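User: Sequence recovery, please. Input:
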């Protein structure tokens, strides 16, 4: 079916995998992976984890290895009915940049090779909205990709491998989920850093704050990835975001309200975009001299001030129902991370 804008949408996606089996989560000890593991276990799945990090709580079915290790990946895939491939290099400051390709592309190749060897035909892959160019309003899944950084380029290359894998066998099912920024309890990414700055009274607005942001709450993302495991054979691609999109200024005001901060005081701390970007380039130079990343950088300023929204028409028409609203997710994160600080203020 096509919408009025000509976008192909998935309206009738009949689940075909009704009985949970054994599933492998690569990167399963990460932020999304831990939340997803709990959702899957509650639904009756037997979860196996492959991660280069040692888990906080030992589990008899956790394999401590890197997806760059083809032998370890092959052994981890043995006997599973599905794979959710979460493992990735995704930070802004990964050096050398070749690590994006070693992990995100070659690691995906190892997963696909192992699945082919063991006859596993069901894959869910977390990609990124960074495959789209910056400052394009609400690109849909068929929008021509134009990644703006090595992370996006490496994820797009991984998508191409998956497209070829699923095309080679009509019984294979692959779901590519292009995630926007994901936040939630326990995360220490960009949203947490923003909330921490607001909570501590250190936030400085760069730009006019009118750029909009697509965001996703981890509880919804985990529920959606679980839902994707039940889709029929073929290639399915979704942008994932929790609507409505907020402008940066709206997000800051909402966070200030939930944190109990004086929004009028923080609103006065503003830097023009050009000045903020210039300071970012200076910070880049200092980071190179010091040999370590700094909290301020040119790419972070560009991303903060960019219009980063995605079209979710296909998602809205898929039949998936989000467990939480965007505002509820933000409230839950703030209560979890800053609850004690709020009660003392």
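Assistant: Recovered sequence (345 residues):
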């Amino acid at each position: 079916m096509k919408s009025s804008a000509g976008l192909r949408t998935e309206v009738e996606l009949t689940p075909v995998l009704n009985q949970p089996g054994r599933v492998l989560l690569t990167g399963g000890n990460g932020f999304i992976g831990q939340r997803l593991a709990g959702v899957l276990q509650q639904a009756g799945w037997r979860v196996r984890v492959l991660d280069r990090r040692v888990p906080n709580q030992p589990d008899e079915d956790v394999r401590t290895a890197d997806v760059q290790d083809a032998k370890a990946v092959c052994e981890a895939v043995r006997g599973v009915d599905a794979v959710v491939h979460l493992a990735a290099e995704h930070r802004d400051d990964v050096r050398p940049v070749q690590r994006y390709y070693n992990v995100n592309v070659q690691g995906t190749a190892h997963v696909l090779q192992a699945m082919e060897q063991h006859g596993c035909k069901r894959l869910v892959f977390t990609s990124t909205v960074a495959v789209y160019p910056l400052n394009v309003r609400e690109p849909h899944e068929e929008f021509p990709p134009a990644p703006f950084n090595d992370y996006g380029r490496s994820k797009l290359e991984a998508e191409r491998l998956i497209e070829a894998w699923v095309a080679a066998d009509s019984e294979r099912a692959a779901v590519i989920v292009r995630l926007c920024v994901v936040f939630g309890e326990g995360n220490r990414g960009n949203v947490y850093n923003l909330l921490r700055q607001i909570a501590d009274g250190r936030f400085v607005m760069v730009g006019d704050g009118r750029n909009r942001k697509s965001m996703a709450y981890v509880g919804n993302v985990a529920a959606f990835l679980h839902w994707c495991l039940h889709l029929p054979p073929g290639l399915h691609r979704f942008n994932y975001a929790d609507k409505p999109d907020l402008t940066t200024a709206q997000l800051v005001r909402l966070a200030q309200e939930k944190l109990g901060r004086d929004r009028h005081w923080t609103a006065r701390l503003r830097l023009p975009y050009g000045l903020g970007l210039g300071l970012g380039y200076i910070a880049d130079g200092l980071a190179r001299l010091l040999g370590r990343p700094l909290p301020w950088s040119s790419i972070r300023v560009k991303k903060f001030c960019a219009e980063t929204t995605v079209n979710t028409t296909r998602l809205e028409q898929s039949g998936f129902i989000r467990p939480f609203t965007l505002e509820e997710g933000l409230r839950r994160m703030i209560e979890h991370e800053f609850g004690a600080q709020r009660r003392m203020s």
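The first strand starts at residue 22 and ends at 26.
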